[in-house]
Request: fold
Amino acid sequence: MRGGEGWTRPWWRGAVFYEVYVRSFADSNDDGIGDLPGVTSRLDYLKRLGVDAIWVTPFYPSPQKDHGYDVADYYDVNPEYGTLQDFDQLIQSAHERRLQVLVDLVPNHTSDQHPWFRAALSSPDDPHRALYYFADGKPDGSPPNNWESAFGGPAWTKDESSGQWYLHLFAPEQPDLNWWNPDVPKEFEKILRFWLDRGADGYRIDVASALFKRKDLADQPMVKDPMTGQAKPDATFAIIDQPPVHEVYRRWREIVNGYRPDRVLVGEIFEPQRQSRYILPDQLNMAFALIRAKWDASLWKRSIDVDRHALHGPGQMPSWTVSNHDVVRQVTRLGGGFVGRQRARAALLLLLGLPGQVFLYQGGELGLEEVNLPDDARQDPFFFHSGGKQRGRDGCRVPLPWHKGQPNAGFSKAAPWLPMPAGWDDFAVDAQAGMAESMLVFHQRVLALRRPLSGSLPNDFKWCPAPEGVLVYERGPFRVAVNFLARPVELSSRGRLLIATNPMVRRRADRLSLPPNSGAWLDLAGGI
Reply:
């Protein structure tokens, strides 16, 4: 495929990626836990959906304190999820269907059960200690500094046997690796090659900007919050984003290019102002442009503009998403129920029409909502480390419903690892597959329309005049219009209606009628 720049487009540019949360996607052996053979068994579903690639969340051996993001062995598969041969079969089956596969890499920290860390705890003199951050506490007995864990509380835990403390920006069971030690980057180059040798098409890199911490381990200054008057950590104080991280990604780019130049590196970096330093020809291909704004036209326009203007280098384009395994599902965030689903459809048209890549999270295509789980069923470390003050992320990770009327909505004959709410099977894949206006069929139609457009339209767009509460933009002969309001609007618009979120959307003469919370794609030239 040729792009507007006059060069052959790599497969990933403009692609649609689908995040597979392995534990909750498909269970092949009826133990209540999703697995790699389950993913393989559903590849035809993903192909029919219309995605180009899947991102598979961590499947490595792990104590599951953070559901795979605490890795005990980077060179194998957790027995709950299958075997290395099952991974090989997934790669082969995906490639037969022309689906690419991204592996989730967790380089910032290991599990506390990783052999390196277990050896580090065995003795203060063990050389593995230098692979992590161990430090003496302050004279008053407090941790080495005031850094906080993302899960709440200090980012340090005391090793009682030595009296020193170790650093963990996440849970205590996830000690941070010391990337200043050359043995750490050397090991991850081996890990990188291991999965590339097995056919992986690239990596999604967890907390990609955090590998190196500032060497002096200085206290983070506190500043006064102008809204509350309370002291809070100074966000401008750089604990992470240390310059050597870019050398790591330059080296990784050399490695993946040595296999195939179109293999992909995707960084978990959400802040737009930082992404342009990483999305470069010799570093990462992509980072995430996550839109969390409430349903308000001005806020969505601002969020889109911030992300697209932050990437100003050659070939830089955002990778749009509204959801992943760490955030409340978009239907719930956008209002819930019928209204939330109508808004989610409109948001899909708005983002899929933009230049750049798109990441979908499993279940979004079914219109699933966040599940309010009982406390005794929750498993997320956010919930436990906050003493229950934060509900955590379990609600967006409830297993997918596949079959209407079957036990556990066809996910498994055994009780799923997270319980499904009553009526979950109403959203099952087979219940929606034959419904012309279902969320699933709508996704299939939109993705089928988008595929030929992504390589032929300009790599930029312009906002068009529109009433307050309405967004309209154009990419060459392609127009997108979305009504954020709770009342219908009528716009002046030419062109052929390609698809709409609502059967009540009408285009007559030079007028486009948009019901509340609806959107449409139009062909202005008649040749799309």
